[in-house]
Amino acid sequence: MQIRTFGVIGAGQMGAGIAQTAAVSGLHVILQDISEDFVGRGAALIRKNLARNCEKGRLSHDDFVAAAARIITTTDISAMKDADFVVEAASEVEKIKYEIFSQLDKHCPAHTILASNTSSIPIGRIAANTRRPEKIIGMHFMNPVPVMKLVEVIRALPTSEETFRTTLELSRIMGKTPAEAHDYPGFIANRILLPMINEAVFCLYQGVGSRESIDTVMKLGMNHPMGPLALADLIGLDTCLAILNTLHQGLGDQKYRPCPLLRQYVESGWLGRKSGRGFYDYS
Ligand code: CAA
Fold first, then answer.
1. Could you tell me the distance, in angstroms and rounded to a whole number, from the CA of residue 39 to the centre of ligand 1?
2. 10 is in an annotated binding site
3. Which of 65, 69, 101, 130 has the most Cβ atoms closer than 10 angstroms to its Cβ?
4. pLDDT tens digits for range 105-116
């Protein structure tokens, strides 16, 4: 199945990154969010990143102009009627996701594949809320999307082989390497990453080390590009907490219980980079 027009729901950090990557790889992109303000901020972020790539010589001026011109923005979800493939990258709130998928199911033609970039919500549960469960799949990009090479592709029980193959092919067209995961809590990436981040927060909570020591140990001792606390700030502490709750509830193992300090930060509105304060101060 040929994908020409690619829809993205949500113009935040992840959605904007996905839209940018798709446009650079030659796809026509429809980027939707619920307000002009959100859409405008997403479009501005994409322009800034494309311009930087152009300055750095990674994108010619003509390709920059062409990629920017391939993206249209809207606040109207019914615009997805023209999309062959849609990725949803809205907030990690189940009710919101179900409402979006129900709208997409209504507006998109029968051939359209509907993917979720969810990091924690079961794909099978999303599929069960639509009339096209065989065309529902997880397409989980990593943050920052334009830089990270991986896409985790998650098949739910009803996902068809054609949907799966098309998603693998699309990932490659977008310059990413897909890795298949099955539909268990946290899939692969977050099942491994989040316990490490949570343990780093426990180290801070129990006074094992300062935030700087913890991050330095993992950066210089393990060659990680950034320390786990700085990474948690990049991902968003609310997202980290949501994923840990999913792992804890879904797998029933105490080892996934979120550190009380993480919960306290989230309850205080310290969500990481996006709120200006997390384990580090970004104001
Ligand atoms: N958007 C676009 N490009 C970005 C970017 C962003 N948000 N952040 C950094 N970049 C680009 C920059 O343009 C820069 O390129 P140039 O300087 O050549 O223009 C390049 O990435 C490197 O950036 P920096 O020099 O600022 O810093 P760095 O070398 O430390 O790299 C990093 C930054 C790529 C984020 C790197 O630290 C890294 O790989 N960190 C780990 C990221 C990671 O683990 N991501 C997965 C998170 S888990 C997830 O996403 C799944 C989930 O569900 C939670």
1. 22
2. yes
3. 101
4. 999 999 999 999
88 among the known binding-site residues? Answer: no
Does any ligand 1 atom lie closer than 6 A to the CB of residue 56? yes
Q: Is 225 in the pocket of ligand 1 (CB under 6 A)?
A: yes
Least Cα distance to 211 among 277, 144, 283 occurs for 277
**CA-to-CA distance for 132 and 111, rounded, in angstroms?**
9
| Cβ count within 10 A of residue 191 | 18
> Are the C-beta atoms of 46 and 22 separated by less than 8 Å?
no
Ligand 1 near 95 CB (within 6 A) = no
CB atoms within 10 A of CB 16: 30
As a whole number of angstroms, the distance between CA 219 and CA 227 comes to 5
Quote ipTM for the complex.
Answer: 0.94
- Exposed, middle or buried, 128 (CB in 10 Å: 0-12/13-18/19+)? middle
**Distance from the CA of 116 to the center of ligand 1, in angstroms?**
22
Backbone angles phi, psi at 91, to 5 degrees: -60, 155
What is the pTM assigned to this prediction? 0.95
Residue 234 alpha carbon, nearest atom of ligand 1: 47
Spatial distance between the Cα atoms of 16 and 39, rounded to a whole number of angstroms: 9
